[in-house]
Design brief:
This protein is α/β, with parallel strands linked by helices and about 160 residues long. It has one domain: Rossmann fold (3-Layer(aba) Sandwich), CATH 3.40.50. Helices cover about 40% and strands about 20% of the residues. Strand 2, helix 2 and strand 3 form a beta-alpha-beta unit. The protein starts with a strand and ends with a helix. The protein binds 4'-phosphopantetheine (PNS).
Amino acid sequence: MNPSSRKAICPGSYDPVTHGHLDVIARAARAYDEVIVGVVNLPIRKGKTLFGAEERCGFIEQATKHLPNVEVAPFSNLLVDFARERGAMVVVKGLRAISDFEYEFEMNQLNRKLAPDIESVYLMASPQYSFLSSSGIKEMATFGGDVSDLVPPTVAKRLQEVLQR
Ligand code: PNS
């Protein structure tokens, strides 16, 4: 596929997707013609996911159906190879606190070594979501905390089913 700088990949584990992720995806969809949300099948560094890739993709598809230029797809290879397969030259990621920086910097350097032609750009988290993470959501839900205003309704329901046994 011909590479395009107007097409961006928003990669992540999305286990599960939060309103913070959706904010970044919506902002990327305003900045680029096409956005592909890449849901990694097996995130090596994060271990086993709570939800399978298919369900994680389904949550995002449902929450982005009002955005016509957003597509959701799982991937199991290198991010830069996935980007190439899909003809995207840009990777968009959200950045929250300084704590994100070290990890993102390393990933950026690895990706750049593998594919200098693919550029990564970072959107600063909106203030209302700067504290929000999938692991924080899972911890809250495990102990019965209310996550309903932090994730889409289907995600909140599934977290309750899966975690509050
Ligand atoms: O939001 P996350 O969970 O931090 O996203 C992680 C993701 C999907 C960006 C990362 O795990 C990834 O890119 N995985 C695919 C393998 C890869 O290309 N790794 C980076 C270069 S070695």
